[in-house]
Design goal:
HTH_MarR-typ (chains A, B), DNA-binding transcription factor activity (chains A, B), elongated, two-stranded antiparallel sheet, 151 residues, mainly alpha, 7% strand, 7 helices, WH-like_DNA-bd_sf (chains A, B), Arc Repressor Mutant, subunit A, MarR family transcriptional regulator (chains A, B), DNA-binding, homodimer, WH_DNA-bd_sf (chains A, B)
Chain lengths: 151, 151
DNA sequence: ATTTTATAGTTGTATATACAAATGTGAATT
DNA sequence: AATTCACATTTGTATATACAACTATAAAAT
């Protein structure tokens, strides 16, 4: 459905405005859908994001700054996100012995199992949304988004 | 910048996953930039959204449901958003005389003035992001996003 | 007329987010 | 060695969001 119909706009919209609304609305649709997938596993989207970053470390610990810079929303409070994951025993944290200001965060076996259970659902989620586009269109959409935000 | 560089991904990513990350990240960039514009006017993005809907009513009152269905994020608590706008005297609310369950919300002169002050900044914001695309690419990006989320 | 069902909005509560200030540690300067 | 500066993370606090339960009103059914 076109964005004007969704938002029941009565006046015609500039294409530049439409992109903003389309990006914001598409993000909402994706996020709501993804939250449904996460709900039975009792983790939030941001917590999932942290777990993915930690798995990507392949056994190396990540400190708070490393996690922060790899996250989508840089404004998140990483300390508290890690606190929540710690309570669920999905990560461990300890002070770095070389530099006691730093914290070493690692994903646990339990954390890896949660991700493994989610993996097929996440792939299905990604493909669900792109199934209406052919591979050229998918590549083109990525290029246009990257070009769009390149200031 | 490409999304893999931004998120410092070490492994190559599927294009379907990239779209998700590109949409989420682009939304973050747009929203952060827009919040900077709103900050001096002391309203949030959601509050701005409600004011725009009310101005679009052209003098007709909007009830809570009408506001809700025209908002980007349908999960927002419209009552409390309107409460905040009421405190700032940007809207009025009264019980609908025909159906006392309904609430009639109207934008005030002060609300219209806030929007009027923001209008040029909002247009500049929209055009700032699309300046790297030509008009065909802008139209194409809208089409692809609409096709993408069409399930 | 009374009860049931549907509609419209509000409130409670728990959790999340935003942003600034504070804390603790290490490195550099005097 | 003491002071200053930079770095890494945490904490406080105010605001926002999510979701369910609740209240009030209207319409429909008995």
């Amino acid at each position: 459905m076109k964005i004007e119909e969704i938002l029941k706009s009565t006046v015609p919209m500039d294409n530049s405005k439409k992109i903003i609304l389309n990006v914001l609305y598409t993000q909402n649709v994706i996020t709501e859908n993804f939250n449904e997938i996460l709900k039975p596993h009792e983790i939030s989207g941001e917590q999932y994001n942290v777990l993915r970053i930690l798995r990507g470390q392949k056994g190396n610990p990540a400190n708070m700054w490393t996690i922060q810079e790899r996250m989508l929303a840089k404004t998140s409070n990483t300390t508290r996100l890690v606190d929540k994951l710690l309570l669920k025993e999905l990560v461990t944290r300890k002070v770095c012995p070389e530099n006691r200001r730093k914290i070493e965060v690692l994903i646990t076996q339990k954390g890896l199992e949660v991700l493994a259970a989610l993996d097929p659902k996440v792939i299905a989620h990604e493909q669900f949304f792109s199934k209406n586009l052919n591979s050229e269109e998918i590549a083109l959409l990525n290029q246009l988004l990257e070009k769009y935000r390149n200031q």
